[in-house]
Amino acid sequence: MDSRITIFTGHFGSGKTELAVNYALKLSAEGKKTTIVDADIVNTYFRTHDKKVHLTGSGINVIAPEFANTNLDMPTLPAEVLSVFADKEAHIVFDVGGDEGGAYALGGYKRFFDREPYDMLFVINKSRPLTQNADDISAYIADIQNASRLKITGLVNNTNLSHDTDLQVLMDGQAVVEAVSQRQGIPIKYISGKKEIVQLLPGALKEKAFGMDLYFQLPFSG
Amino acid sequence: MSDKVLMKGNEAIAEAAMRAGCRHFFGYPITPQTELAAYMAKKMPKVGGLFLQAESEVAAINMVYGAAGAGVRVMTSSSSPGISLKQEGISYIAGADLPCLIVNIVRGGPGLGGIQPAQSDYFQATRGGGHGDYRLIVLAPSSVQEMVDLTYLAFDLGDKYRMPVMIIGDGMLGQMMEPVVFDDTKGGGTGEKAWATTGTRMARKRNIINSLYITPEELEKLVWEREKKYDTVRAAEVRFEQYAAGDAEYIIAAYGTTARIAKNAIDTLRREGYKVGLIRPITLWPFPNEAFSRAAKTAKAFLTVEMSTGQMVEDVRLSVDGKVPVHFYGRTGGMVPSPAEIIEKIKSIAGGDK
Question: Could you say which of A45, A162, A222 has the minimum Cβ distance to residue B6?
Answer without folding.
Answer: A162
